[in-house]
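Duplicate of earlier report; tRNA (guanine(10)-N(2))-methyltransferase TRMT11 input re-posted below.
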Amino acid sequence: MAMSCPLNRYLLLMAQEHLEFRLPEIKSLLSLFGGQFISSQETYGKSPFWILSIPSEDIARNLMKRTVCAKSIFELWGHGKSPEELYSSLKNYPVEKMVPFLHSDSTYKIKIHTFNKTLTQEEKVKRIDALEFLPFEGKVNLKKPQHIFSVLEDYGLDPNCIPENPHNIYFGRWIADGQRELIESYSVKKRHFIGNTSMDAGLSFIMANHGKVKENDIVFDPFVGTGGLLIASAHFGAYVYGTDIDYNTVHGLGKASRKNQKWRGPDENIRANLRQYGLEKYYLDVLVSDASKPSWRKGTYFDAIITDPPYGIRESTRKTGSQKEIPKGMEKCPESHVPVSLSYHLSDMFFDLLNFAAETLVLGGRLVYWLPVYTPEYTEEMVPWHPCLRLISNCEQKLSSHTSRRLITMEKVKKFENRDEYSHLLSDHFLLYKGHNSFREKYFSGVTKRIAKEEKSSQE
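Output:
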């Protein structure tokens, strides 16, 4: 039976990577542009084909100017489980909605897109010829058509079991492509200034989208490193600011992270990274500062806080302290105003981060950060909580067989009050949060066990 076609239905063709991150990105961007996520599908799972209801084509175009998780969007004219269902669905589509794109003065072409199957040219031509019943009056132009139409066929997700016939067939008018090319053009491999943990370009843009970063926002990164997250926010027109405890990183000094290069050069700093992409005008400043002791007056400054705190694996977790805070038994240093570096427990780091976000974000502003977890022990209750912040999304990226990190997105929904600062101590899950403190030991314990297992199997 053919499906009826309600107004403003669109087909999104999604990229097949970072699957968990796709839905929160699309929801966040629709919310940013005044749309709402409405879908007839219960769940998307791993499918690259999503049917959405979007209020207008302008919102659909704005969505595609931002997304790195979607490849293309189409105005959906027909959909069926078989060619017959598709044709029936197309015949039910309102002719008045087709006419503006099919009149005699227009040019067009029809493309065939298949997922998980390759068709011969002959098979493609056969599918195009079968659409002759549509009221096309314009001329075919394969090089520069005014309108592009696509038949999209879905052959499922299993490359080892490709069906003879597609599970679903869609027909639509192409509207716009997403921003997948940003992943290559902003690749860390081509960047002047990188560190051991510079964020992958694709994930940086996903984080900015989860944070609903927009033009003229002020975006802050308290663990700025080499500034990769600032670059993604600046690309979308936000003014960017950051801090880091590492003097050499902030000033672009010391040993280089690149292979076959000993020391950092004069163009290896965060400002130079933004200059490389023509984004220097969005650079506010980066300071040497300790995230555990923010030097800010009370107030709301930021539209988004987007950050990747250190986990103690490739970058150490540190904070400044006084001589009095050094544990007994350690060798005494002469009195000095130079800050002493102390270890910084992960649970404390995340509570400080959430409190800082609750104090300094504007209402509706978002905090986006990575939370490392030891997978065998992880539960949702281990995600830090704050009365001023509402959890929006929680997406997993696997790091190894036993560890992963989760991209946590929270939105400020309540004005910060002094009593909120220690509210986490009243939470039933407070002891669970403390489990994050042993992440480093568990990470390396798992690595050691894996190496021993591999060595044993190679000797057998």
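The chain is about 25% helix and 25% strand.

Merging into the original ticket.
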